């Protein structure tokens, strides 16, 4: 099977990883700490020790530090403000709009530069757009200064930084929904709609007084709030505060206030402007007992191991502001991952991607000795940024990594890995939360395994009847999924298959046997084997399905089966579809539109002896996705089949076909699971190199072999085959055609093909008996040497069944 992990090769460079991280941050431009998180990327990807943004302040003659990340600025002698007309690099880059890259020697000649803390001190100053827009300043302590990749990363970060004017909210007259503007002299406040909703106040009921809002706060939080809203206590610059407001019922709600005091003067009153947001999912304080209680409640409702993992991710990733979480179980020496968040393969290290399987990846514990030691010790381990770890773990959390062994039943059931991209400070209360969650998750896993035990038997039986891996296809990518029903210990009859055929044809099969029991599963295995055998014999699609129908009738079973069979010509991009009572295929075209095909169909297999199964032609453009599924995905108690098919088509249209495995997972999300589900997706890309092919019908005439040799000579010369290869090919053709004419009856056909510098010579006849290579030949024997000659001059040879007969083939590899 070609899985989603196969689409990623190699390791991303630092600029590429920085671009991915920045793109993720840019998706949420209204995030309160977006600027700081952007600056943290300079620490992670460019190796900077300090990063800050300087922008014009309320005094246009000064450049002020708007935000910073990393070590304290005072360590490097950096100021809060610099005069725009000064000689420090920050001012020069701001005035000219040109970047500056300075090492210790250049800084020594800078009149405004203070003493550097180390001989390797270097400075990077990049303008934030045109001259006069401010600049990004980064400090490094690497020998030689910032390298090429570091500079590219810093340029990306400078391009992503955008600092809005702090007074914009109060000057436009139209506040954003989450913004406020407070007049410090009168206490009158203008607020956006979302703030009123957070405080539970209607627009018509709000009198514009800040005291009305303060009256909703928890009394214990009022002193901190008053220090912000009273001018005597508020200093110039940014402030951040979290506080609670009372609710009509239930616990208080946490809110986060970010504000900046704008000084008055020249007829203007001092104002506090900023934003207020719901901090219930953003708070850095993770000691709240209610969080552990909510996790315990979620784990109590988790029925399966996967449910446990998802509950842990929901409880930890957002509160800890982690970038990735993996929950894995320990099976012998394998770490079998059950939940990955985020699910994209590109977000995980190479060793994880290289082990990516059909549904979930797994990684060997022996490849991560640090993790193996943590599991043996059985206690939570935390490694801050820069800790020496093996790549498989270091890339999970370059800014910090926490590993939580999950105890269950006196043993280690697995581990939870939590990683950060930006340097993360691990507070004691975070450690307490992690330890508590580990114990809860371990016990929940023990309970979930009891629930999963009966379904594991079902899954194991089902997996033995389904393909273990799908083959790699020429010019296409295939992904399959199977979900057993969760309604009791029931074995389903859904199946799928991908069958490579001759001449770059591929058969795509999906089917469903009536019922949920061992008999249905057994019949499913028999039907899958029969269809594969009929297809391998070279029959046309309608003949393959007709043979399967007759076989099921001969079994004298009370069960019937539905089936969809699609024969795709990978060279031409054409296909033939045959349906036997099954759902219509769904096509997603390269332009993103999706359609439910109106392919003709026959009755289910095993119903009528004289049934007809018409073929419907299809045309596949490169980029087309073909979806075959069973009714468990589209039919549920609250939606009929037509509604479900329409929903499937819409989801397929909205999906990104570049990662077919993620498309399959998205289509299966929310499946009802009252019935088992099979899904087969194929993306047709077209073959990069199309073979050269020619055929010749050999008539039974005295000079038949000579005619076949002449056809071969002319064809191969046209293809530019070398003389040595041509001589060998003529010998092979002579022997194979002679054997077919002498030992068989009926029609004989010679096929020539050349693909990727490999020449195939094939002779088809009407006899199913394969040629036998003699074990020994005496000097007086008059025959039996033909196959030995073919074997001697060929790179490989063999036979395959073709429509009641056979085809004998031999491959030659031309020199050069």
UniProtKB/TrEMBL annotation:
Molecular functions (GO terms): ATP binding; kinase activity; metal ion binding; protein serine/threonine phosphatase activity
Record carries keyword Transcription: no
* InterPro entries cross-referenced by the UniProt entry: Bact_Sigma-Reg, GAF, GAF-like_dom_sf, HATPase_C_sf, HATPase_dom, PAS, PAS-assoc_C, PAS-like_dom_sf
Task: Name the Gene3D superfamilies on file.
Answer: 3.30.450.40, Histidine kinase-like ATPase, C-terminal domain, PAS domain, PPM-type phosphatase domain
E.C. no:
3.1.3.16
Question: Which UniProt keyword terms apply here?
Answer: ATP-binding, Hydrolase, Kinase, Magnesium, Manganese, Metal-binding, Nucleotide-binding, Phosphoprotein, Protein phosphatase, Transferase
Entry's transmembrane regions: none
Q: What is this protein called?
A: protein-serine/threonine phosphatase
Which source organism does the UniProt entry give? Answer: Streptomyces capoamus
């Amino acid at each position: 099977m070609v899985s989603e992990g196969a689409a990623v090769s190699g390791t991303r460079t630092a600029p590429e990883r920085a671009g991915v991280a920045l793109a993720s941050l840019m998706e949420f431009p209204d995030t309160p700490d977006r600027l700081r998180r952007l600056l943290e990327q300079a620490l992670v990807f460019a190796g900077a020790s300090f990063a800050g943004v300087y922008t014009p302040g309320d005094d246009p003659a000064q450049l002020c530090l708007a935000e910073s990340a990393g070590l304290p600025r005072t360590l490097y002698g950096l100021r809060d403000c610099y005069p725009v007309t000064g000689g420090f690099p920050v001012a020069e880059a701001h005035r000219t709009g040109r970047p500056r890259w300075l090492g210790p020697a250049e800084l020594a000649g800078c009149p405004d530069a203070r003493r550097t803390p180390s001989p390797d001190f270097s400075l990077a100053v990049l303008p934030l757009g045109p001259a006069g827009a401010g600049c990004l300043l980064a400090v490094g302590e690497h020998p030689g200064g910032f390298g090429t990749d570091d500079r590219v990363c810093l340029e990306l970060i400078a391009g992503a930084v955008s600092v809005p004017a702090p007074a914009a909210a109060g000057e436009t007259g139209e506040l954003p929904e989450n913004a406020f503007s407070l007049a410090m002299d009168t206490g009158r406040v203008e607020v956006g709609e979302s703030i009123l909703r957070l405080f539970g106040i209607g627009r018509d009921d709000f009198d514009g007084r800040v005291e009305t809002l303060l009256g909703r706060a928890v009394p214990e939080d009022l002193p901190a709030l008053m220090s912000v809203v009273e001018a005597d206590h508020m200093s110039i610059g940014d402030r951040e505060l979290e506080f609670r407001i009372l609710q009509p019922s239930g616990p208080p709600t946490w809110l986060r206030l970010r504000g900046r005091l704008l000084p008055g003067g020249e007829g203007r009153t001092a104002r506090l402007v900023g934003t207020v947001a719901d901090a219930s999912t953003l708070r850095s304080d993770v000691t709240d007992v209610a969080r552990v209680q909510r996790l315990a409640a979620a784990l109590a409702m988790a029925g399966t191991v996967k449910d446990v993992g998802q509950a842990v991710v929901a409880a930890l990733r957002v509160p800890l502001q982690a970038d990735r979480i993996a929950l894995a179980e320990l099976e012998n020496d394998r770490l079998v991952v059950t939940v990955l968040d985020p699910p994209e393969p590109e977000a995980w290290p190479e060793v994880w991607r290289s082990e990516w399987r059909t549904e979930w990846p797994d990684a060997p514990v022996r490849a991560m000795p640090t993790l193996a030691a943590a599991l043996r010790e059985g206690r939570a381990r935390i490694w801050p940024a820069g800790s020496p770890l093996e790549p498989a773990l270091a890339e999970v959390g370059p800014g910090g990594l926490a590993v939580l062994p999950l105890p269950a039943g006196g043993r280690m059931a697995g581990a939870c890995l939590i990683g950060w991209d930006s340097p993360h400070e691990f507070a004691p209360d975070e450690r307490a939360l992690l330890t508590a969650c580990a114990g809860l998750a371990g016990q929940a896993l023990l309970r979930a395994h009891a629930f999963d035990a009966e379904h594991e038997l079902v899954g194991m039986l089902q997996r033995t009847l389904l393909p273990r891996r799908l083959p790699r296809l020429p010019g296409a990518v295939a992904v399959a999924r199977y979900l057993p029903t969760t309604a009791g210990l029931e074995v389903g009859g859904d199946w799928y298959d991908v069958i490579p055929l001759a001449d770059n044809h591929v058969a795509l099969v999906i089917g469903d046997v009536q019922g949920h029991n061992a008999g249905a599963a057994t019949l499913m295995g028999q039907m899958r084997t029969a269809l594969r055998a009929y297809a391998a014999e070279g029959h046309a699609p309608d003949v393959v399905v007709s043979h399967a129908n007759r076989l099921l009738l001969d079994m004298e079973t009370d069960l019937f089966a539905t089936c969809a069979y699609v024969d795709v010509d990978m060279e031409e991009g054409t296909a033939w579809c045959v349906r036997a009572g099954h759902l219509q295929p769904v096509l997603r075209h390269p332009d993103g539109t999706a359609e439910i095909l109106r392919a003709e169909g026959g009755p289910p297999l095993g119903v009528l002896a004289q049934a007809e199964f018409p073929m419907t032609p299809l045309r596949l453009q490169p980029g087309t996705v073909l979806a075959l599924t069973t009714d468990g995905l589209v039919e549920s108690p609250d939606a009929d089949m037509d509604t479900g098919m329409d929903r499937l088509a819409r989801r397929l249209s909205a999906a990104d076909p570049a990662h077919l495995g993620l498309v399959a997972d998205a289509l299966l999300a929310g499946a009802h699971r009252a019935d088992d589900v099979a899904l087969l997706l194929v993306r047709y890309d077209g073959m990069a190199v199309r073979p050269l092919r020619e055929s010749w019908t050999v008539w039974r005439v005295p000079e038949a072999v000579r005619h076949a040799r002449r056809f071969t000579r002319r064809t191969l010369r046209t293809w530019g085959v070398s003389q040595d290869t041509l001589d060998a090919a003529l010998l092979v053709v002579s022997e194979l055609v002679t054997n077919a004419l002498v030992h068989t009856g009926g029609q004989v056909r010679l096929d020539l093909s050349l693909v990727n510098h490999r020449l195939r010579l094939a002779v088809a006849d009407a006899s199913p008996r394969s040629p036998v290579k003699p074990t020994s030949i005496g000097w007086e024997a008059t025959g039996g040497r033909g196959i030995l000659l073919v074997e001697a001059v060929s790179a490989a040879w063999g036979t395959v069944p073709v429509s009641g007969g056979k085809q004998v083939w031999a491959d030659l590899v031309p020199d050069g």
